[in-house]
User: What shape does this take?
Amino acid sequence: MDKNKILDSIRDALVNLDLNKVREFTRIALENGVDPKEIVLKSVAEGMEVVGRKFEASEYFLAELVAAGEIGREISVMLKPYFKGEEMKKVGKVVIGTVSGDLHDIGKNIVAMMLDSAGFEVIDLGVDVSKERFVEAVRSERPDILGMSALLTVTMVEMKNVIEALKEAGLREKVKVIIGGAAVTEDYAKSIGADGYGANAVEGVRICKQWMAEK
Amino acid sequence: MKFSSRDRVLAALNHREPDRVPVDLGGTATTLHLKAYLDLLNYFGFSERVCMMDVIAGTVVPSERVLERFHVDTRYVYKCPPEPVEPTPQSELVDAWGIRRRFTGYYYDLVPGSSPLSNAKTVEEVEAYDWPSAEDFGYNLEYMVSEAERLASTDYAIGFPYYVVGSFAHSLLVRGFQQYFSDLIMRPEIAKAIIDKIGSIMVDVIHKYVKPIGKYLDFIFFGDDLGTQDAPMISPKIYRQFVKPNHKRIVEAFKSVSHAKVILHSDGAISPLIEDLIETGIDGINPVQVSAKNMDTKVLKEKYGKKLIFWGAIDTQRILPFGTPEDVRKEVRKRIEDLAPNGGYVLASVHCIQHGVPPENIVAMFDEAIKFGHKFYSHDNI
Assistant: This one.
């Protein structure tokens, strides 16, 4: 069995959203002693990159992104027993949530899934997250990145409140802040002092990866 | 020729230019949020008993007084007598589909994790779900017929509001967004079972509740949100496989019970889907979300102006809430210039006028629509 070939096959099956082939090739790889870390770094991370590019090229849409995330998670489940007690070192740690007063979660969930597939440790606080909970999570989890999502112009203003609360708690410098959501704009992100703005999930994840590479 | 409101709207719907661009306010997707309406009444000094149109969206039925002030050309046959505003909203609502929503200050929002079919694993489980039937949606047929008859004796164009859903968006709601998106790819038999079931229920609604009033209607809305800010939620391929057959049979059902023009309401950036949408038999699209990607009104009119009526187009994401009255007037003029040549345009806000929109801007929108809509079709010095 050619290792690189099987790693490519897993990646391509993920890109083609073929769960059966993903399962089959992953099983073959693991039975033949391929290091699960390589499957994560080569097949899954690369595969999600390609999926992201297809999304940006309007070949893939939300359905495909979500399906890819689901397949990525299925691979994680298959790999878990093969890690032999050593935890996979994570690319970075992200705390993510939808702001107070806002219950919308699909965008946030897609970002969380893609960050997970890209090797991040993701702590998802859910929806309607108060600024106090965001601050507490930054204090106790010490993430590299804080991500906030809001769909509406009325709830978007909460993002500014969270950033102010981080400053008051002396935590602003300890974390990079990225925001996103349908009504959010690059201008708004700049005006409230966010470090980054993701126009869509793919771009948001790319920015997070870049930040970790620069660290 | 002297145009009544009905003449005016019918001309536009048939791609002819009337005396001025017709305007719409008061449809399910073209009305105002309660708070915007209260601000407007305050601005006018009108005192009224306000009635709700859709409790979930927090929208109102505008009064005759407001509709006349704005010279609105349309009137709607609502499904039941509008109820006065509840002083204290309930904290949670469950609708006929079994979907749970929580009051978050302005609207009722979907409670994450509350989709009734999120745990279904087989087609059998989907079919066994306690699906609503046509009678469960609150249609009051007696009221609808008497309203349709009453409106028929007026000069207004008569519309059936967006109540009937196209099936895709409700598949997302009933199954859960994430689940349904991946069903489309990973469990297509479940995706199909859900969407086709919803489509069947809607066809039944049309035969039971639209047929008796069909002969009175000038236009009919149905709705299915297909786009986000930047793109359609699904590819044209998936649209064709799952959604198109349901849109087609819904449009066919409408056309079998009425000569009215059928307008599809779909939010978002939907231009990659428009060719397919036209093939389902629709006559027009609404709201024409101009702030979304690739929804430029000039381009849309050039490409599809002969085949589609455009209904809406006045930006509600940035201009109406955050612009000056002059910005609003400019927006009205721009959209009329882009969409009104050769008829085919009914002016309205892109979806409902939200809370926080200054009353001055609403007034500027409708007054300029009448003024410039008249000037544009007079073809003087344009």
